[in-house]
Amino acid sequence: VVRSLPLFHGISPGSLADLEFLLKTRSVRDGEAVSFPADGHGVFGVAVRGTLKVQRPLPTAGISVVDVLGPGDIFLHGGCGPVLYGPHDEIVAMTTSCVLTMNLAELAPLLIRDSALSLRLFDQAIRRWAEQQDRLARVLAQAADQRLASLLLFLKTKGTPKPRYPNLIPFNITRRDLAASTGLSLETASRVLSMWEREGRLRSGRGWIELTDLPWLQDTSQRAD
Amino acid sequence: VVRSLPLFHGISPGSLADLEFLLKTRSVRDGEAVSFPADGHGVFGVAVRGTLKVQRPLPTAGISVVDVLGPGDIFLHGGCGPVLYGPHDEIVAMTTSCVLTMNLAELAPLLIRDSALSLRLFDQAIRRWAEQQDRLARVLAQAADQRLASLLLFLKTKGTPKPRYPNLIPFNITRRDLAASTGLSLETASRVLSMWEREGRLRSGRGWIELTDLPWLQDTSQRAD
DNA sequence: CGGATCTTTGATGCTATTCAAGTCTTGTGG
DNA sequence: CCACAAGACTTGAATAGCATCAAAGATCCG
Fold first, then answer.
1. Nearest-CA residue relative to C1' of D21
2. Nearby residues of A194 by Cβ (< 8 Å), 6 or more positions away
3. Does A151 have pLDDT greater than 90?
4. Protein footprint on strand D: which nucleotides are under 7 Å from a CB?
5. Distance from CA of residue B17 to its chain's centroid?
6. Position A206 pLDDT exceeds 80
7. Could A139 and B183 be called an inter-chain contact, meaning their C-beta atoms sit closer than 8 Å?
């Protein structure tokens, strides 16, 4: 499984063997959360198949979706030291998924031994970080419909397309998720999508969305009011 | 200069020599932007002294402040491949500052040779990425006053405190900057700060802010409406 | 002193939220 | 197979919060 990931292509056989020894496969069903040890040890992981969302609980009992993981995306959860997602963040499968995980503490020795592997992870960190930077800039500046357009286009990049429906977002995504990812209310997200559906920009149903007018969505996400 | 940065403490003498050879010092005066080659080659850099903001131009002719750099913070600007800030992003000094820069293309060979250095940069990438994650979550979920409180506390961590005024944000920060960092309008930012000044939470003037009630700001940034 | 920039304040309007009611879809168990 | 409950979605009306527009007041600099 490890060897099949583009993330690890060209990595030395020794490191691959170590990774294969340390990384444990686990499957997560649609809607289920990835469970983590409660003992405070952090986890390093990689998404292999499927798509997952990272939810952050809010003091108001609501949640924000702070990230979306697709195949090949790494994550660092819980624990102390440099970590991406806090111990309260939940990683929930949006479709039947498969992730690899290991103890975070065992990652550093591996990286010290193999600089090519370090570089690969550094590269990915920069790429994903820039992705977040972009999301932040959009949330800071854009109106409701623009944020939704940006988000839908972003989500499309995070899933493995279904053969027969290339523009269908290939995982379960509810109005509630869209709202939690854009900082809008569920009702506003629903209203915007209903409008777009009337205009023929997309088709949608309970938990699924198919983008039928990508160019228009691109324009919308980039227009200068 | 390179050796004095905590970022590079404990790095092998060989790599330090390489870094010292490649990294060029440049000073930036208050309000000035760091200039970059227009030839499309990316730049890797480190902030050494002072504080800088990263501005992203918007289609509406406005700007968003997407990041703030303090001493020891790295950045990757322009160029192709994995890069943090796009070619249109500007890095502007908020106080007289000093940064080290080098050609981004020359970074990878260095990282391949020294895995400890790679690990150090990976660590920082994760830390800063998590910082942005946190900002994103706040912008998604919080009201105007909460966002401003979070931002002020964040900004305080990015400057080197002035000896006589530990709670003074030690660089030039205008209402316009606060607004561009939180996604609010200049007027709203001004109104909230005026209110806080009347309530004795802070003192401020043209371009400066002194936080006089840190615990209250903490509470505000974390309260559940 | 004059000009530029930063800041404040008020009036007005729009956008998105909130609250509420109701419809549709899906899965479950009898 | 049908009834039912839970969850997802829609829609409307009222409201609140923030943006926008406009004008004037501070502060800094040469």
1. B187
2. none
3. yes
4. 7-13, 17-22, 26-28
5. 27
6. yes
7. yes
